[in-house]
Amino acid sequence: LGLRHDLYIGTAVDMAALADPADPQYRATVSTEFSSVTAENVMKWETLEPTRGTYNFGPADELIAFAKRNNQKVRGHVLVWQNQLPAWLTTGVNNGTIGKDELRDILRNHITTVVKHFKGKIWQWDVVNEAVSDPWDSPPTLHYKGFWAQHLGPGYIADAFRWARAADPKALLFYNDYNIEAFGSGDPANDKTQFVYDLAKALLRDRVPIDGIGSQGHLGTQYGNYDTLQVAAALKKFAGLGLATAFTEVDVRSVMTPGVQAGDSGEINPRLQASAANYSVLLQACLADRHCLSYTVWGFTDKHSWVPGWFTNPPEGLATIMDENYQPKRAYNLMKADL
Ligand code: XIL
């Protein structure tokens, strides 16, 4: 995809697909269409430290070497998250052999080791991912959710940013989450964007080194379309705090109709049209704001997308900008027109 002078267009990269000799098109597309890459999985804790104290940096280093050869920037994903943690860690905490002080040491060590290993090679780090609950969680009042808040309290967020900054002072440090594309009621009890805004403001007040807000951008055509100005307004509010922004994991999924094949030729498929419109709304909002540094899609072909494996009831799919045969869909063409 083309470039605005300073907007990076990225994709999540599936390392197995990148290495598959039977799928050369995947590799070719990553290198030619994108100016930034994110590891879809290989920088997550379960991959990096499958056994306590034993690090497996190989696959992530391969991605970094690939990016260097292709002159691409790398988004680091992810330092602190409640998902894809190694069993030694969750089991140890749950059975009481790892207590609170030790857990905090483990987190500090992990962040320090990982960020130092990649020092100078990561443009933006997702330091903390998905720390805030959703209105459908229990209790419905928005709160800090998940393993880390539960065991360390919400102070782990500030700690994580401080430890990451100490390990690589030049990397941009992001808080990353979904369903924060636009403001809602403005009440932090039920407006997740407002809750994250308040979090960022409090971190800055406490002189915590945070540089940006990552808005994942996992959308679905069944939820209707965002409006460009509404999304631009949210980016602008974060920029008003002095923060950078980025769309970090954009995809726009659809509920699959049993027996109906997706196709963008012949009859116009309304799902593909709605998907394209959502891709474009986020892109235009980002293009309109110089603080929005990058726009990353969470995979670019339906051949390698997390959506069908994750959203199964009802089955969802068609979330990326190219079909399973790498044929560009309306979303790709519309993005190209925007750029
Ligand atoms: C997903 C990956 O795409 C899948 O391959 C994996 O099985 C689960 O995680 N939010 C995030 C990403 O921050 O790390 C998730 O990636 C998608 C949701």
Automatic annotation (TrEMBL):
Gene Ontology terms, MF aspect: endo-1,4-beta-xylanase activity
Presence of the UniProt keyword Cytoplasm in the record: no
Alphabetical keyword list: Carbohydrate metabolism, Glycosidase, Hydrolase, Polysaccharide degradation, Signal, Xylan degradation
EC number: 3.2.1.8
Entries under SMART domains matching the protein: Glyco_10 (SM00633)
InterPro entries assigned: GH, GH10, GH10_dom
Residue ranges constituting the GH10 domain according to the UniProt record: 12-338
Reaction catalysed by this enzyme: Endohydrolysis of (1->4)-beta-D-xylosidic linkages in xylans
GO BP annotations, alphabetical order: xylan catabolic process
Protein family membership: Belongs to the glycosyl hydrolase 10 (cellulase F) family.
PANTHER family named among the record's database cross-references: BETA-XYLANASE, GLYCOSYL HYDROLASE
Name under which the protein is recorded: Beta-xylanase
